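Why show two proteins at once? Because comparison is the fastest way to build intuition. When a single record is shown, students tend to memorize it. When two are placed side by side, the eye starts asking what differs. So, the first record is below.
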Amino acid sequence: MRHPFPPPPERSAALRLRFAEEARCEKPDLSALCLLVGAVADGTLDEAGMDAAQMELDRLAGQLPFRPGGPAAWARALRSVLGERCGFGGSPADYQWLGSSLLHEVLRRRRGLPILLSVVWMEVARRAGAPVYGVALPGHFVVGFGPQDEQVLADPFDGGRLLSGADAELLVVGATGARLTPSMLTPADPLEVVGRVLNNVRAWASARPERSDVALWAVELALLLPAHPARLRYERAQILVQRGDFVAGAAEMEVYADLVDVVDASLAEKVRGQATAARARLN
């Protein structure tokens, strides 16, 4: 299966600008952000393709029953339409393909990672008027319906299976070894979801040094989010050096060193030494 390659630089720059603008909106649009990630990743995804993906979400929402009932009824309706009728779901093999983190490909193949399948569930349900939101369980993203005291969880990766409290506990323990806490069940905002999508992309690329292009665009998009860890700058610097751009990588290391100098002078000194070493590789 072919992994996608980014578009030409001019197109990529325009998409990144749109991504940054959308991320800074008062109410960021989750599907638009995920499709912009897809377009930065895949040069074959043009404006018509992004529009078609939005229309597919609309079409799927139109298959849901009108106001089926409370949170459990909404969860069952989504499972019936998306999981059973349309066949959306995932398997361990989906973790090996970059397209499993790209919304347009997940809509096409109806396969993907838990968080992208959850994006499909959320965006379809939201269009139909459901009280839906993402729940960022450690290691496994799911969707929630209804207020906290009536919350119903569903796992889109498992075809929309409804989760009991014990099921959610097992997911968390299996992923992290930690116990489930109430704070883990709070709704995730759109930017948190997109940040986690980009984390998955960076993890995929880190295991494939030949795809440092993917690692670079993923970290650069993450840096465009309004809130991001300062260490992303250091990660970007390392990728630039890996790709042979020693001058830009060294400059980014120095920016990161200046940021951390106040809280960790020894780390700053170490990073500045790495910047000097990167520049020396030009000789």
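Second record. Ask yourself what differs from the first in the token line.
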Amino acid sequence: MDHTESRDGTDEPTDDTRTTPEPESAPASGPTPDPDSASQPGPTPAPVRTSEPESVSDPAPEHVPEPEPAPASGSASGPAPASGPTPEPESASDPAPQPAPGRQPQPVPESAKKRRRPWVRRVRRAVLVLALVLIVPLVAVETALRVNYMGDPADGTYTRDRDAMWLGHAWVDGRKKDADVTALAGRLEDTGVRDLYVHTGPLEHDGTLPRSVYPRARWFIDAVHRELPGVRVQAFLGDVLANGGPEGLELSDAATRAEVVRSAGQVLDTGYEGVHLDLEPLHSGDGHYLDLLDDLRELTKGRDAQLSVAAHQIDPLPHLHSVAGLVADHPKWWSQEFFGQVARRVDQIAVMSYDTARLFESTYGGYVAQQTSLALEVTPPTTHLLMGLPFYYESNPSHWGHAETVGAAVRGARLGLSRTDPDRELFGLAPYIDFAATETNWREFKDGWVR
């Protein structure tokens, strides 16, 4: 009314760095020569071969010890050195070999740099799936509503002089005077408004209605009959239902429903010409509500009075109220079937076709067109259907004032009427609510609907 982390080259590698082991000294083959004896020179020892280090991705330099030099000999005819490769002497320009370093980190291979942690990949995949599940259907719905707003309404789809309007409580609690009724009559002159739903409650949670909350009701009814002949005044009764929070009116209680019926008889005794019921939030398929309407209809028919209700919007997608019920305590929509069950039990049903969370004027108008068609399909021709208009301005996640304009709602209702039942007589619009209305609201209502 809803990151990823990359691993850089400075991370510690997962494999231990290995160094080349120090070679073990091995005795030269044959006897060790006596350095003082020139007559018994020994063979030049072969260089000791160290074991090959384990293979690593980037091994440390191998350290090879120098061979021991052969002992000096005064005789040129000494024995030849032992067979085998003799290492070349190191160049004087070469730096002395450094000892093998200890455990030091090795550079991370390029393949390791590009790896991602497994949980990062899973998060990215989940975000992508969520985006597809939420964003794609949303774009599809918004596009469909925009298309639904295209085209021109049929000729003759204007007021049938069967419109209604919701009024605030100030008209019956003593705040309004005769001059205010005269001004209201001027506003409604040359419009199709023929029913006024004046707020006379709220009901107590047990269904009772203190007479002290509407002390000036009789005065207002008489003033309207004087200033606006032919306009009916109905008592707008409402309350919060217990399924909407810890406190509220409990429809499942038979005694409470009986008190609501008694309160309806009480306002009819005051002079009201009908009872307009608004209980929220009302879940789709509530059988106790249907039982209450049956009892109220029996009462109003016996008094030749009207029974009207404010109705929730209809599922814009099949079974959407069921899906919404899984994540919200107060599903916004009724099924089309339940809407029809309610419509068959009343004289008038007014759709609260505002607070839709639509972001654009075109999609809001398309939504109202859709709601109008859905309601017409299941409302019997003997029941008077009204589509609510937002005569107020708010900006919040459930109602964007720049989008939910009276002009868009009027055009949307006309489009839905044109496509579904253009000759329907028991059809009208119902502005909500008088004390918040602006000059722009009144102008768009009259320019778009009144002819």
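One difference worth noting in the second protein: The two ends are 32 Å apart (CA to CA).
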